[in-house]
Amino acid sequence: MAPLVHRKRLPGNPSYAAWESSGLRWLGEAADAGGARVVALLDVAEDHLDLERLVPAPASPAAAEDFGRRLATTHDAGAPAYGCGPPGWEGDGWLGPSDRLLPLEVTAEPSWGSFYARARILAVLRMGRDQGTFGASDVVVFERVARRLAAGEHDDPADPPSRLHGDLWAGNVMWTAEGAVLIDPAAHGGHRETDLAMLSLFGAPGLERILAAYDEAHPLAPGWPDRVGLHQLHPLMLHAVLFGGSYVAQAVETARRYA
């Protein structure tokens, strides 16, 4: 029986369809090797993607543990560099809600700290400063964090770039009778803790079991819970730029912890 089709309508930006579909294929390669399952991509057009229609189901404890192990395998599939896109991708990617997409720089940095400082923290800081979201005192705090990152204070040379989903909030994990399925990626090379921190930011079903199973499959570096806020800083800044409100104070207060 042919799979049921979900047609995902896309914004009027031809490169977005190519970006998301490239990410699905790249993550799908890891899924074929035991990584986290990825929604099946059936067809690609400039204004839509045809995807397998998924039937939601509750997230069981066993499914959460299975997802944690599989996500570790996806990350372990690796990437050529921090900030790189899927194989063959040229130009920047995209991140954010479909009606307000923001550019996501695709680059190739030798260290996570230099990548995260320049292509994520400072890139969003410029947007927020220019539109008045972040004031002068806020800018100083974010720049201090960026300097410490660029200096390598949080780098782990023993852990090479991971293959990330890149926007792994709970809404981009679909739970089905067969387990968790990844949707809506912004796939790139990065730090494995970034995906885990994003899962933690807005909560996810069975989060404790996911993290415990992940840590069994690939032990996380000592002190990683203390770095969760650092990895959440970029999405918090993006939310501040997009939506304002309490996200602004939350982003600044998080930055102060690492400044």
TrEMBL record:
Keyword vocabulary terms for this entry: Kinase, Transferase
Protein's UniProt keywords contain RNA-binding: no
Organism, as annotated: Nostocoides japonicum T1-X7
MF term (GO), any: kinase activity
Pfam families, A to Z: Fructosamin_kin
The UniProt record lists the keyword tRNA-binding: no
Designated name of the protein: Fructosamine-3-kinase
InterPro entries per UniProt: Fructo-/Ketosamine-3-kinase, Kinase-like_dom_sf
Homology family: Belongs to the fructosamine kinase family.
